[in-house]
Amino acid sequence: MKFEVSSSELLNTLQLAAGAVNPNPVLPILNDFLFKLKGDNLTITGTNLETTIVCNLKVMAGEEGIIAVPAKIILETLRALPDQPILFFVDTDTQGILLRSSYGEYRLAGDNPDDFPTIPEAADPKSLEIPANILYRAITNTIFATGNDELRLAMTGVYFEITSSKAIFVATDAHKLVKYTYHNISTEIEASLIMPKKGYNLLKNALPDQGVVKMVFDKKNVFYSFNDTMVICRLIDAKYPDYNAVIPVENPNLLTISRRDFQNSLKRISIYSNKSTNQVLLNLSDNSLTISAQDIDFSNEATEQMPCIYDGDPMTIGFNAKFLIEMLGILESDDVSLELSKSSRAGILLPSEQQDGEYLLMLVMPVMMSN
Question: Which pTM value belongs to this model?
Answer without folding.
Answer: 0.92
